[in-house]
Amino acid sequence: MISKRIVLHFPHRLVDQPIVYKLVKEYDLQFNILKAYVTPQEEGLMVLELSGEEDNFKKGTKYLQSCGVKIQSLSQDVIRNEVKCTDCGACVPICPTGALAIDPFTRKVHFYDNKCIACELCVKVCPTRAMEVRF
Amino acid sequence: MKTIKEINEKIKKGEVVCVTAEEIIDIVDKKGTRQAAEEVDVVTTGTFGPMCSSGAYFNIGHSKPRIKLGGGIIKVNDVPVYAGFAAVDFYLGATAIPDDDPRNKVFPGEFKYGGGHVIQELVAGKDLRLEALTYGTDCYPRKKLETLINIKDLNEAVLFNIRNCYQNYNVAVNLSDKIIYTYMGVLKPNLGNANYCSAGQLSPLLNDPLYKTVGIGSKIFLGGGIGYVAWQGTQHNPKVKRRDNGTPVSSAGTLAVIGDLKQMKPNWLVGTSMLGYGVTLSVGIGVPIPILGEEIVKYTAIKDADIFAQVVDYSNDYPQLSSRTLGEVSYAQLKSGKITLKNKEIPTGALSSYSKAREIAEELKDWIKKGDFLLSEPVAPLPGVESGYTFKPLKERPVI
């Protein structure tokens, strides 16, 4: 059993097709949609937590790629600009998953990108705009 | 008892004992105030946070032919500056924003760029675009100027902040059922979070609560360089309620500070954007406290658990200038990550960076130990508790 947070980029031609449904039906995968939208260029973007048997997971993601869906791992999406971050902690109570937390000893803000669901709430809340989105 | 002169002699000889306001806590715990006062000469403090009443003044040198900026419309990187002085002087405020910034028209406004960012970029050595449109005179005929400017070419570039370094501050919460966007950050509805803004036990004026050593003329760490206390800051309010340890339980004293921007660093003067509120400048300040005796060392040994702040509702009470507070919490509680109010556990967030405050106190300590930084004797005290100096609300009167 594995579980991963991934970002799916759907090209224009696939936006109106029930691709994710097949992940359940054909590959017995569970998904939790963390975010989904269609961009002005009519590309689709979906952030999923996808889990299932390792073999099925591989087949499922392979199927997605064969349809033309680009897959990216989530941790690459919201990144922290370490030069800009001042470790103030304004983001900490805003982050819904505890991905941003203050170390009680160093008082520095840690960014646990494995916990990040790319909700982007921190991006505009950060006073020095140190949190950046890279889709 | 020691004098500042004696401490400076020790600094020059490399014999000074200097510790930070965190380190002094353990020293006093172990050795007591008497021995600590004998052994320690200087305690360094630090704070790093958004300080809106900041800005800088400049003299750019005369153009050929001459131009009089005073009375004109002057912008640096599209940010308007105040030029109501002689020909080529102007002042840039930290919260100024370009005329075409949408502000809060699309709420909450992002406030991506303004005076604070201009100051940071200037200090970083970037070329900035100056635009001036003004009227001509016989002695200053030129009406238009467009040029790049760089800090290294300016005659003067002086940081002059009229209110910094607040001695304590409110803890902001939101009692309403809607999210609000404030200078204390984003506050989630129904007590969703509590935001504070002080370095607590490291904060300069909380380590000298009754202004016994810090005064006008005190030499300080300012924006990564050397600065001075120019005056008490605006809204200086020494007469608030205090605890037995001298610390005020709400915002009290403030400092006006000044220093040559050319020797400051961009990592200690950081352009800051508060969502839905505006632009400001985060400033790094460190004040050295000479340990002149046992009383002073006792003040510097203050702990987060012994400093309290008022919890204030920013959805209604603060905007309506109500004096109501919802309770009192210590900085130790705030730093634990949650406080309890109205039987609810509320996560806390900070706008003031404690790790940066610590870095400042450490850096100032290094300067003093290396003999690079001598203390200065204040030339006049800050208005104290008994001075009668207060902070009054505006008395609005009808205009007839």
Tell me what you see in this structure:
The complex is a heterodimer of chains A (about 140) and B (about 400). Chain A is of the alpha+beta class and about 140 residues long. In chain A, about 20% of the residues lie in helices and about 30% in strands. Chain A has 2 domains: about 1-75, 2-Layer Sandwich (Alpha-Beta Plaits); about 80-135, Alpha-Beta Plaits. Chain A is built from 3 helices and 8 strands; from the N terminus they run βαββαββββαβ. In chain A, β2 and β3 (about 45-50) form a beta hairpin. Chain A starts with a strand and ends with a strand. By secondary structure, chain B is an alpha+beta fold. The longest helix of chain B has 17 residues, at about 25-40. The chains are: A alpha+beta (about 140), B alpha+beta (about 400).
Topology (SSEs and partners):
The complex is a heterodimer of chains A (135) and B (400).
Chain A: E1 2-10, H1 19-27, E2 30-38, E3 44-52, H2 54-67, E4 70-73, E5 78-80, E6 100-102, E7 109-111, H3 121-125, E8 131-133
Antiparallel strand pairs in A: 1-3, 1-4, 2-3, 5-8, 6-7
Helix pairs in contact in A: 1-2
Chain B: H1 4-13, E1 18-20, H2 23-39, E2 42-44, E3 47-50, E4 55-59, E5 73-76, E6 79-80, E7 89-93, H3 115-123, E8 128-133, E9 144-149, E10 156-164, E11 171-173, E12 180-182, E13 185-187, E14 194-196, E15 215-216, E16 219-222, E17 225-232, E18 255-260, E19 269-274, E20 278-286, E21 288-290, H4 294-300, E22 308-313, E23 327-330, H5 331-335, E24 338-341, E25 344-350, H6 354-370, E26 380-381
Parallel strand pairs in B: 1-2, 11-22, 14-25
Antiparallel strand pairs in B: 2-21, 3-20, 4-7, 4-10, 5-6, 5-8, 8-9, 10-18, 12-13, 15-26, 16-17, 16-20, 17-18, 19-20, 22-23, 24-25
Helix pairs in contact in B: 2-4
